Amino acid sequence: MAHMMGLYDEPFALMKTGKKTVEVRVNDPKRQKLRLGDEVEFIKAPVQDDRLQVTITKLKTYETFRQLYEDIPLDQFGEKNVSIEELLSQIYAIYSKEQEKEFGVVAIYVKRLDE
């Protein structure tokens, strides 16, 4: 199955260079449809002038973003010299704690199709 998701400029660039191999989302109904081997087309937001095709290699769910960030090495998010608190601040600017509580969260491990 094919899926489409937007990514802001910096995470998009990190994924395109292969430095970011895990995408983080709330596990809402759209993400609950994801399966191993599915393809995802990431579109650079907000301009939508670049696209990146990946395949899902692993999915891992958590109750909270904190649990996710404490479990997965931060370098898989393409981040260096950043704390979990900074990552939480960034993710809560996108998702509310109510969404996190309602749906839980998912780590989407990906591999670029051109690798």
Automatic annotation (TrEMBL):
Residues 5-114 form the ASCH domain. CDD domains: ASCH_PF0470_like. Signal peptide: none annotated. This is ASC-1-like (ASCH) protein. InterPro entries: ASCH_domain, PUA-like_sf, UCP016134. SUPFAM superfamilies: PUA domain-like (SSF88697). SMART domains: ASCH (SM01022). It comes from the Bacteria.
